[in-house]
Write a structure and sequence with these properties.
Radius of gyration: 17 Å
Order of helices and strands: HHHHHHHHHH
Strand content: under 5%
Number of strands: 0
Distance between the termini: 52 Å
Shape: globular
Helix content: over 70%
Oligomer: single chain
Number of helices: 10
């Protein structure tokens, strides 16, 4: 029991790791929160640091989600749960990673929107759906240059695809919860989209 609790706590702490802030300060000597959208996620990292910095943040944030699911699996294994039941704690570990990313203990319980971390979670739980959603995201962003639009559409598509592919109920419920969370976290972006004022994914130059 203690081992499983520790694994779930670690899932939250893994999600809380502020990838963009750490990479920005350690490599680029820059605080991402002072530029662009003031977000520490991969999109703003691309704006400020370029493709390499943006990709590094994306990979680390996605890895946090995958690690959260894995820690949930370890928690279930420590309780000797059979494989078909382990998915419940795997989903719980993923949820804790997203909560950590969005409400990081290292950022005074503030954080990002959870898209990249969610991507890592569904990549672990539902890889085929992830590939389809990621392809759709790439197409939308390539055409519109608006990352938030691709993220919102992708988030809504996730539970639909999970239902079509017949994923287990816990995974489907996670997809629904994650979609709602992503949309809610993007409420300001949705307002700017409707007003035609949303930021596009373009490089900015630090002063």
């Amino acid at each position: 029991m203690i081992t499983s609790i520790l694994c779930l706590i670690l899932a939250y702490l893994a999600g809380s790791f502020p990838s963009g802030l750490v990479i920005g300060r350690a490599i680029y000597h820059t605080d991402l929160r002072e530029y662009g959208s003031h977000n520490t996620g991969a999109t703003n990292a691309y704006r400020v640091f370029g493709p390499a910095g943006g990709l590094a943040v994306l990979v680390l944030d996605a890895a946090k989600g995958m690690l959260g699911v894995y820690l949930g699996q370890l928690a279930a294994a420590s309780l000797a749960w059979p494989p078909e039941q382990q998915v419940y704690l795997m989903v719980a570990g993923g949820c804790l990673a997203i909560i950590g990313h969005s409400c990081s203990i290292f950022l005074k319980f503030k954080g990002g929107k959870g898209v990249a971390t969610g991507l890592g979670i569904i990549l672990f739980l539902a890889p085929w759906e992830t590939l389809i959603v990621f392809a759709g995201w790439c197409l939308i962003v390539a055409v519109t240059r608006i990352v938030s639009l691709g993220s919102i559409v992708g988030a809504v598509a996730v539970p639909i695809l999970m239902y079509v592919f017949g994923e287990p109920l816990p995974v489907l419920l996670f997809g629904i919860i994650a979609a709602v969370l992503v949309v809610v976290r993007h409420k300001d972006n949705i307002i700017r989209l409707l007003q035609g004022k949303e930021l596009k994914v373009e490089r900015i130059h630090k002063k």
